[in-house]
Every structure is written in structure tokens, then in C-alpha cells.
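Interim report, section 4.2 (structural modelling).
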Amino acid sequence: MSQKPFIISAEGVNKSFDGFQAIRDLNFYMDVGELRTVIGPNGAGKTTFLDLITGRTKPDEGKIEFLNTHDVTKMSEYEIYRLGIGRKFQTPTVYTDHSVFENLVLSLEGSRGVFRSLFARLNSTERDRLDEILKTINLGSHRDRKAGALAHGQKQWLEIGMLLAQNARLLLVDEPAAGMTDEETAKTGDLLLSLVGEKHSIIVIEHDMTFVRQISQGRKVTVLHQGHILCEGPVDEVQNDERVLEVYLGRKARAA
Amino acid sequence: MNKRTKIELAIVAVIAVILIFVLPALNASGAVSNFTINVWGKYLCYAILAISVDLLWGYTGLLSLGQALFFALGGYMMGMHLMRMIGDLGQYKKPIPDFLVFLGWEQLPSFWVPFSSFAFSMLMVIVLPAIVATAFGYLAFRSRIKGVYFSILTQALTYGAALMFFRNDMLLGGNNGFTDFKFLLGADVRDAGTQRGLFIASAIVLIAVYGFCRWLTTTKFGLVQRAVRDSETRVLFSGYAAANYKLFVFVVCSVIAGIAGALYVPQVGIINPSEMQPDKSLEIIVWVAVGGRGTLLGPVIGAVAINALKSWATRAYPDLWLIILGGLFILVVLFMPKGIVGLPAQIRGFFAKRKSTETPAAAQPSPTAP
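Predicted structure of the assembly:
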């Protein structure tokens, strides 16, 4: 087949927790170089979907493939990471007792072996790269501060920086705008847009519709509802879809 | 290198000179008694053991309640060699250890034979703890056993081993263990010169182990190690096989404990299964907590201080010792979370706070750059 492989594809995925069907018959395809926004009401299964991709939970049924070759449902978290799938969690998850710089060092792409780690030294290229990232995420002046002492928004940025250091092929970004000012949110959006391309594909989960509009720019948006894909399409189309209005935006509009 | 590490290295250098050169010289000239050297040699072995627990607990978050097992295993390997060195000078004047004669053995059991070699015995001091730690650690970390469950399992491991070693048919001396040692490398074990040599060896090993662990914490391995302690899930999502890192630390620490045990046995002149009893491992935890965990230097201070206190208290108030120990542990946990090592900073913090409450203007946060 000459067709371009999907960066990630999910087929017939089911997952339930104690009888609650979190993911129901999910089929999801995403091209290399795509920036896909996933929206949906609370409990729609957005975060569970990321958990399934990153190996945090295993599906009851179905397969999830990376580049049509690696079935991630049979791999452990760190093996999936090593394929080049990085994740930013909903609540910022950084190493609080390590300095900002050390957080980036831990995320830097390269060997993850025990014995290599004993004698690993940063070379000047790597050091420059990390300093570059520090500048990008606006934490240059906080280089040696403990990450735990950062403000919430700064921790979000640091975690994005960790994804940059990893140089992941697929970035899973869970609610990056939460706890950020409007200005910071816009900047986050710009950063994600500057990354997306052949080297990086991105899945963003978001509630903030302004942010979704900013980053999707006519790209495909996926609406999840009760663990199933309700519809997909450009944000304007999706927002006018009757089913979407019914379950999600409609409800929101009525409430407002 | 920052100011704090410089101060710490200076302190360690001074301690090293005192332990390796000054004290032995004073002992040789008669200014320091043989008894003192012997007791302090024991403390140094405990200090090495305490560092191994700190590397596990303080730096990796693995609260092992079975570290005394590896200490005792190292001790047993040294003990087997010392038993062979008795030759036919035992009570029964036979070429095999007395307890074997007593059990009706005419000849040496085959697994005892290689322990006549000093080199083999020293190798086993390292290899046996490493094998046990690898087997246990592999199973525990692969199954992602964590936190209190890990602690309970390690406690069960050492208890199970103690029960096993108590049995006579293990052919390791049963509940009496090994004692009445006579020679080590051709020298009389009870001779003052030999004891001084063992003291110096313990001091060198202590400084070397400290140096190794300090180096380890500065490597990328050290970064991952502390990351495992603080957020193991995140470590997995940063691509590290956390189980491998934990296994490595666990094995390294078991080997350190084994070496400490091997140095300990010829200095106290006895090894028996009571060294593996669960309470022994719990005591180490108290040393580390009192000294200050996650500091490497603190556990050394804690081990020496508490054992010095124990030597005094078990003579002055023999019935109260365990209550004193328990009380101390509770006090430290409640009021000195950083232990003895953290005390200066804690006192400074206390006075700074008092000062700022007395003059509220000073408590205002100074404007910082955005």
C-alpha cells in the first residue's frame, strides 16, 4: 500500500470500569502531521482515551496502533514513550523536588538505560537545546528553581517543555490552557501551532472553545460523547451539528 | 559545586583523617583503649549499613525493613571462613567446626569446602546478598509492589530467613551461629593489632561507600532515582523502566550491607540468626530517621549516636532502652523531620520566623522580579 500510515489509529476499542462504559466502540484515525483537537463533555472518555494510548490502562477490546506497526495496547508505559509518544497530563505533573533544568534533563531524548545513566553527561549541543527550550517556555530565569515552587501556569509550561525535550513524534496534550491567563493561553496555542508538521503530530484535549478555535483553524475536530465519536469536522461545522448541539454545545448554550 | 557540598566534603575529609590515621595511631601508642577501638569499629559497620538504607529509603523511596538480612548474610559468609580458620583447635580437636561434630558429621559438607579460601569467601560476601536481592527485587518490582506492601514483604523476607537459619539442618550453626573465631589471614583475631586493622578497614570502606553514594546522587542515575521516589508514574511516562532502576539500587544497597556485615563479624566475634530478626532492620530505620534521611551524612551520625547511646543506656537503664529508642523515634518524627543534620537549618528557620513576627514590617515579602 502506498497510503501514508496513520500516526495513531484505534479500531473497535472498548473499555469499561466497574460496569461503566468509558470507551465504546471507538474508531479513531489520525494522519502524520495533523493537529487534532478532541472536545466533549465531562466523562466523554477524553482522558481515558489518552490513558489507553499511553499504556496507563489497557482496553478490554480492540487495538491501537502507532504508525500502523506498533500495537501499543500490548506495551508498557515506558516502551510506548520510547516509540515517541509524549504526554502532558491534565494536572501538571512535574518532578517537584527537582530543579526546572533537571526536569528537562530527565525528559531529554536519548538512552533510558540504568548503566548508561551512571556515566551520562550533557554535551554542549544538548545543553544549548535545553537552554533554548527554557527560553521558549519562558522559564529561563527559573532554571535552578525547584519545579514545585513554580506557579500553576508555569508548571504547565514546564511540562510542555518536557515534551519538547523529548522531541516526541506524537504529543498528547491534556487541557494545556487550564489555569493560564488569556495571554498565556494564546501563547500556548502559538507554540503548538509552530510545532505541528511532519516531525510532530499533536492531539489536544480542551474545553476552552476560544482556544480550540485558535489552534484548530479549520482542521479536524473530534467530538467524543459517552466514549464514542459523535462527529468529526472543522470547528464551525461541528459547532452547528445538531447532535453536538444536543449533547454538548446546545446544553451549554441553554445554560448560558 | 555549591557551598554546602564544599562544607560537607571538608567535614568528611576531617572525619576520614581522624578515623583512618589519628585514632589508630593513638590506639597504637596506648592513648585510646583497645575497647574503644573495638566499639567504634562496630559503630562504623553500622554506619555503612545505615548509608545503604538511606540510599534506598531517603533517595529512592524504598522503605526496606529487611536490610539487616543482607548485613547478616555478608556476616555469615565471613563467619564461614573464620570457622574454617579455627582448624583443629576447636573443643573436639577435629578438622571441622565443632557444631558439625556435635551434629554427627565426620567430614566437611561439600558447600563448606570452598570457604577455606579467603578470596572465595570475600567474593561470596558480595555475591550472595546480590543474588538474594536480585531474585527478591526482580519479583517485587516487576509486580509493581510498592510502598507499605514492599516494606512488609522485606520484613517477611528477613523473618523467614531468620527462621531458616535457626534450623540446625541448615548446617550453619543453628541458633548459636558461629563464634570462637581464632585467625583471620594468619593473624589472631583477638589481637589488638588485628582489631586495629579491622577498624581501619571499616573506616576506609565507610568513606569509600560514602564517596560512591555521593557520586551516585550527582549522576543522571541519581536524578532518576529521586524522580522514582517523588513520582514513579511520571518516571514511566518519561520513558524510564522504573523497576530496573529500583532493582539496581536494591542490589547495590544489599552488597553494601553485606560488606558491612563481613567487617562486623570479626570485630564482635559472633554471628547468629538473631542478627536477621525483624527488629534489627527496624533499628536501622531509626538511625537513619534520627540522623536525617536523604543526606548520606545524617545516617552515619544517627548510627553512631544511637549506638553510643545504646551502649550507655543498656548498662545504665537496661529495662528502659527500648522505650528510650521508641520515644526518640517518635520525637524525631514529630519535631525534627529532617533529623540531626537538619537541626541547624530548623533552628535558623525558627528564629527567623520569631524575628519576623516581632517586627511585622520585615515579614512583608520583598518585591521580586516577575
